[in-house]
Cyclosome subunit 8 (Sinocyclocheilus grahami), 545 residues
Amino acid sequence: MAAMRSSEFGDLVQIKKQLISIIAQCKERGLVHSVKCAGAHRGQSGGLKPLALSEELEDARDLDALCLAKSHFELKEYDRAAYFLRGCRSQKAYFLYMYSRYLSGEKKKDDETVDSLGPLEKGQVRNEALRELRVELSKKHSAGELDGFGLYLYGVVLRKLDLLKEAVEIFVAATHALPLHWGSWLELCNLITNIEMLKSLSLPECWVRDFFMAHMFTELQMIKEALQKYQSLMEAGFAKSTYIISQIAVAYHNIRGEGYLQKVHKPKSGNSSMLLLIRVFCCPLTGNYYSLRSQHEKAALYFQRALKLNPRCLGAWTLMGHEYMEMKNTSAAIQAYRHAIEVNKRDYRAWYGLGQTYEILKMPFYSLYYYRKAHHLRPNDSRMLVALGECYEKLSQQVEAKKCYWRAYSVGDVERMALLKLAKLHEQLNESDDAAQCYIIYIQDIFSCGEQLEHAEVSTALRYLGQYYFKNKLYDEASLCAQRCCDYNDAREEGKALLRQISAVREQGEPSSTDLSLPSVFNPLINTTTPVRRASPLDLSSGTP
């Protein structure tokens, strides 16, 4: 990506004028979230004094109707607002007319929404006004009569209708027509799926693009690039921007560097933007506190408060879904996760949460659908792969399950469950050599990481390996496993019994097998380019519990 264009940030006075202008334009059109975003930049752009705002010329014929409609709009009486704006000709009045109709449809959709247990695409209730709005906006667009705000609304309508390719094109056009409207950039951000798609877009050359690129890097988990971009923005004159501070906190959170959040909890007196930011941060944090204390109703309440402050607060929707799951309210959990996905389709946690919800409802086909979505977004996350493996097992697709478990181990199994599940699956299929190989690698990994032998499933692995070695007449190895089994309450009696069996066999003079190797295993699960770790016979003599 191109380096920071310093010339674009040379005149901070001009940037502040632009921000003041866009704030006024967004406010007049009821775009409250765009007002807040622009206001965060305006309040911290170099500590400049307030600048006078020139009044925009407005069509006098629309002024009375516009004022009346705005009063109804602010009371969320969208149908009445649209009624008084019919026939108005100015761009401002036309946008508010169409936007009121859109919000009216959204409000009715929310009122009529019923809980659905089908996949998101099939079960979602739609805004009935969308198709009419699309037809009218399409005609205006073809005639070249839509300004930047009109293009933005047209793109939102297309996105809501799942016409994503067309929506991307319109949002790109909106950024060219009105580069300072952050809402268009954010909508575009939610539709970009990878870095290749990002590079392919023809975006306007302006200072807002740098904010967008930093935001996209964070969304695409390119944390190093995101932090570098935000650092450049801070050096260019936005060092006190509450937006940048919060985005850096998000970036560090994605790499578990949560200590940076301390910086956003130290507002300067009189800084209302920072105080609002802290309120937005503190509600989810308080919710997490109550969640950890298993007070799930209180936790959900604070996540709801966070959403009142910012309805597009992605984390709050997802976390609220988790709390509803804990309260066994699966319908509410599904709706919360779906809201999170509507805000950002790249939220793997919401897709994963939906998979878990349908798993609880014993609907493995639906679980598989959502887990696949989560895995697509986090291909190297072992949790997604293990969840997929479990779904495939329930659907009797053992080969696919094996692939998922092995892949989960290969990418770094954070929960140390993949090999165990793979070993148990091999057991069920009577693939004893493969099961033994998995258990051996599992125990070797436990020792190599210096973990204690009371790890949950070590005794399970030792029990199986003891019997496996005994059946293959490897009595020394079987004896070692049996001795270690005696260190665990749940395996002690089996260990003692196996030691007695070994003693009886040896007293009869039966020799041990001279074959000390195990099969290479996993051949059917990997291709020839995948590295395979061959495990030697289990050596527990050097391990310390």
